[in-house]
């Protein structure tokens, strides 16, 4: 296993084996913390935080200091020239000259990947908008492992703001990777984004079932499950049943309830105006039979969604989660800087799906307005690039923010070799689109854009016929 | 003497002997500063500052670096998630996991005590609103000691904003503890709060005399004394005289004039609107006979209240005071982290008064609106708690901010054992209140509140008779 | 060579030999960076930044950490008590007690000199308003030297905002000192201030020629030169020609094009309102024959004035310049703290001009409203002081901000020894002013001021005769 000089942008950047090796080193860091002082003498970490933070920044900095390294920091974006319209690419190149490792928090989704593309030192994503927060996920996984032994076969319920809570986004894939069953219990209106569920099913296999709003679980009225995911790793009968039976899934009870704060700072104006309800996790809820053994986890800070009456409860893990942030990050920093090495255990292989890539000078753009690809200062330093994760319906996934985008119109580079008359575009859901090879595909968000680039409406634009259904 | 793992919230947390031992170590830190590097290798200090500061934060951080330790810092509360409505209790538990010692500055009075209640590492109060700032007091005392030898028997005049200047509040008790005479010279309208004078007399003994506004001292018109305090330690005739004669008290002249800046940021709107005058300390004032030998001290920053024409004057100590902040804090940190030990000299015992405690779910609240007990985010993490410092008149002292509160109505838990009819409340200054034992006392701020909790007006509410005078 | 304990306020504070010795040490720092860890163990640097910055602050801090030292920092002036109206002088005395070296950035021109006047530890100017930024100049010079070998005889073009770009102000004198030819290519309206050109010619010798607006250089329309400066060091025929022939000066091409960002934050309201044009440096401009070999330099951050299409160009040096900020500053810090010594090579002596000094309690003030001498908080801690750099026309240079000031009226201390009637002031450009010795000179900005101080209008005020022309 060699994490030396590697970036950590999403939790997918680490294999299961690498995560387990990291946790072995975390144990060592935790057990003999004073002995680690000096491992990173002379090394410098830059913590560049463009969003308010305390926990994450302080725990990274504490970790580096415990290793004997130094820290340079930008914690108030207003007091930095980075606010003067400088690009992330320039910032990456500059800070690479000052530090041996960069920890970035940024409100734009995909910003950490862009930083890593230009930096010459490793970049750790400490949260990029609502996208991912992989080191928080490492703390979460480490806590589950320390408290329960093995993640495989566990049932984990995710609670609260599953739309903007980036920590849950990283966690979902990590749990799937390790073979856990996931119950989605969002605050109404803050459900998990579709692109995440899509990626979950297509890349991790397993089965997802949506129960619709307010699906209540047996006796306890307050505990509602909106959807459930069963991994193919699931050892018992569940995996063989048609559809998911919640009662069966929860027979052994929930192993952990992962609570998140409503991320009000990311709400749209509509969401701010709407009277969204945030059910509270408290002793009463936790007295339900299916939650009897459930660890209560929270990435913190909490506001009201997690009652203080849980603080003394032995199931409450949230302060331990936070405390483990230091040894987990010590291990990560030491490995990334090459100050430590550990032997990786045999991999639990999760096959990576190799999707074809879509990258053109013009055409379709990422559908996520918070994506880094939309930012004026960055336009010269990146080109929109997508994985073609599905052809029917045609679905792209932005390589920066990982949001899904469904282009409406397509054309082919083969159609019009020299023949202007043959430059035609058609609806993406027409049967003609099926015939286009990935490498020849040209995709557009709108008819106007296709025509601007010299394409004329083909038969399947004019006739408005939709021939391919999404489920085909 | 063992300061290891102890909090420092108010100057009362240290005995005279401990302070003297700390100063012995301060001498060593000061004389051989480079030799201290390494004492705190691998240790981490968190400086959490919720109010603008430079001097205090930088000198703590410099002290820690000189000892070879590391620092993590929150200096701009707006750039931290602590501003998102997180409680001090949560913050305490989290930061305890990241650092070995916490230095807190906070605008709420009592915030440092609350932090210490929940932190698992030692907490140093670096200023909590207008309450205390004990490390500044240590720098002040150390300077007095270095320049004058012994604090006992000294006459110290406190000048300026004695209402909001928290540095003087810590200093008053320290001076009393060491046996100094204190002259109060407030800017008119910014007199020392009553709760401080009350604590001074009841706990430190000695005698306090108020002279009323604008009491001028002999020749020098500009030097006015509003009140004076003579400790029981006073060795000469003063202590035996009836009343305090200022001329006698100042016969040997003033040893130090402690100047403070008007703390405009804490002024009420009325105080801001009022045309408050801030007499200036300058060469002219200092030419007065009684100030001839007086050291000029100031916790800094100064604005206009201390004239620059004093900068070159040999009596001026304010830059030395600031400079001594580093070795004083080095000594404190090293002792608190257990990196150093010193033998404590024989104690000059100041007997602690053990007051009965008042703590109930409902009833009287602290009268100080800036107290941490009033803060919405903290309500779950603390219960109002008071020392009953006087029964007649009934006076409580908040254990967080130390402000005095005089409840208006009282009841007893003994009065109504099972008999609803006997649940009666009476005026706190009625003779019935005298009969209630501390452990049975229930106190209310208002009749409405008493009735809300099921109490009915007793005889001494209806008749409006006031039977016990405050001086009884 | 001994830089120990010396301030670095302007680039003039270092001789050529000292700069070269510093660069020798920079090479060592750069080649064996890890070996430097420990050189400054136990030392503390204070970075006090009153303007947004990232690059400069982070590179100073990284340099100190690489040497094993510690850093205390104020990066957000709003979160410091320095914002409460405290003087720079007080700040200097305080921070001197906390740190072994102070790095200051401040918006007021001359602030670093004032800080150095009161600090007891060395002060490094990290940018004082539009005045100077000497460590950036060291990075620039080091880059020129590493890439081209010898600065002597080079032709350097300065591009963009030459009015407010303090980095170019420091650089101009450095280039002159090392014997380079300078081409001035300002954005129209942002020409180099006259006081800088005046100092250049009077103190460094050589020849300056202004070509007027938009002087185009041969074929390339976009490359315009506004003025040129040839040093007396120039070895070839140029130095002997009457006037400067641009074609000859640029025969060998430009060695470096130094680009600066429009410093919009310093623009006057008129400049903000004006539609100022900022010609862009891009591949097209750089394809001009005379720029074929030119290094492209920029102090960063850039916005639009330097096109991203240059990033991959081998001539582009700006990221290297920034990267070299760390070893250059390591060398500077190590020398200033006495942690390293280097032998200085034989000096290339640039004779310092010893101007007479003008310093009076009243009279003329610096003409630069951004000068530190105008600031209310500083008035007690400094007296306006000027070098008399020219008698005809009478020209003063502020010792703080180095701006030029031309007093309108003069008097002499000799004229009125006891004779009130002889206390007369006259126009500064009258022939009487020629007769006043520097040590007797009294200068006024206005007739009102002269009369306020008891002077009466002399003959050459009433008659309005101007007898001495500026060119005499």
Concise account of the structure shown:
The structure is a homotrimer of 472-residue chains. Chain A is α/β, with parallel strands linked by helices and 472 residues long. Helices cover 27% and strands 17% of the residues of chain A.
What does this entry look like structurally?
The structure is a homotrimer of 472-residue chains. With 472 residues, the first copy, chain A, is α/β, with parallel strands linked by helices. Chain A folds into three domains: 11-132 and 324-336, 3-Layer(aba) Sandwich (Rossmann fold), CATH 3.40.50.1370; 135-322, Rossmann fold; 357-462, Roll (SH3 type barrels). Helix content of chain A is 27%, strand content 17%. The first copy, chain A, is built from 14 helices and 18 strands. In chain A, strands 7-8-6-5-9-10 form a six-stranded mixed beta sheet, with helices on one face. In chain A, strands 2-1-3-4 form a four-stranded parallel beta sheet, with helices on both faces. In chain A, strands 11-12-13-14 form a four-stranded antiparallel beta sheet. In chain A, helix 2 crosses helix 12 (325-336) and helix 5 crosses helix 6. Chain A is globular and about 75 Å long. The two termini of chain A are 42 Å apart. Chains in contact: A-B, A-C, B-C. The interface between A and C is medium-sized, with 31 and 28 residues.
CATH superfamily of the largest domain in chain A: Aspartate/ornithine carbamoyltransferase
CATH architecture of the largest domain in chain A: 3-Layer(aba) Sandwich
Radius of gyration of chain A (CA) equals 23 Å
Ranges of chain A with pLDDT <50 over ≥5 residues?
465-472
How many domains in all of chain A? 3
- Specify the number of helices of chain A: 14
Secondary structure category of chain A: alpha/beta
- The pLDDT mean of chain A sits at 88
Globally, the shape of chain A reads globular
Strand content of chain A: 15-25%
């Amino acid at each position: 296993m060699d994490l030396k000089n590697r970036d950590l942008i999403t939790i997918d950047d680490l294999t299961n084996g690498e995560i387990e090796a990291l946790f072995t080193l975390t144990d060592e860091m935790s057990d003999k913390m004073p002995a680690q002082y000096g491992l990173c003498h002379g090394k410098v970490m830059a913590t560049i935080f463009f969003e308010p933070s305390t926990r994450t920044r302080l725990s990274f900095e504490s970790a580096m200091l415990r290793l004997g390294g130094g820290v340079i920091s930008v914690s108030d974006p207003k007091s930095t020239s980075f606010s003067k319209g400088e690009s992330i690419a320039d910032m990456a190149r500059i800070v690479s000259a000052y530090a041996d490792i960069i920890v970035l928090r940024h409100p734009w989704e995909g910003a950490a990947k862009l930083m890593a593309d230009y930096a010459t030192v490793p970049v750790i994503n400490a949260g990029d908008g609502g996208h991912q927060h992989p080191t928080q996920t490492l703390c979460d996984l480490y806590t589950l492992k320390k408290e329960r032994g093995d993640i495989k076969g566990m049932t984990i319920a995710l609670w609260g703001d599953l739309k903007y809570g980036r920590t849950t986004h990283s966690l979902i894939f990590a749990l799937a990777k390790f073979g856990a069953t996931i119950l989605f219990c969002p605050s109404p209106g803050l459900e998990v984004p579709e692109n995440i569920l899509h990626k979950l099913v297509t890349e991790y296999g397993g089965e997802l079932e949506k129960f619709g709003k307010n699906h209540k679980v047996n006796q306890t009225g307050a505990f509602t499950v909106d959807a459930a995911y069963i991994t193919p790793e699931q050892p018992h009968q569940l995996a063989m049943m048609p559809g998911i039976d919640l009662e069966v899934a929860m027979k052994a009870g929930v192993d952990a309830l992962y609570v998140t704060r409503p991320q009000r700072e990311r709400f749209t104006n509509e969401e701010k105006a709407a009277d969204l309800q945030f059910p509270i996790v408290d002793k009463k809820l936790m007295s339900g039979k299916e939650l009897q053994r459930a660890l209560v986890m929270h990435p913190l800070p909490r506001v009201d969604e997690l009652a203080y009456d849980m603080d003394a409860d032995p199931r409450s893990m949230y302060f331990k989660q936070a405390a483990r942030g230091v040894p987990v990050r010590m291990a990560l920093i030491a490995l990334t800087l090459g100050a430590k090495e550990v032997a990786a255990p045999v991999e639990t292989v999760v096959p990576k799906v190799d999707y074809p890539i879509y990258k053109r000078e013009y055409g379709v753009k990422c559908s996520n307005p918070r994506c880094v690809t939309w930012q004026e200062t960055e336009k010269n330093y990146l080109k929109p690039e997508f994985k073609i994760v599905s052809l029917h319906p045609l679905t792209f996934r932005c390589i920066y923010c990982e949001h899904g985008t469904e282009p409406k119109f397509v054309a082919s580079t083969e159609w019009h070799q020299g023949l202007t008359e043959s430059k035609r575009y058609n609806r993406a859901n027409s049967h003609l689109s099926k015939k286009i090879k990935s490498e020849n595909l040209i995709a557009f968000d709108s008819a106007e854009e296709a025509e601007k680039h010299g394409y004329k409406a083909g038969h399947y634009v004019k006739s408005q016929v939709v021939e391919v259904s999404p489920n085909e």
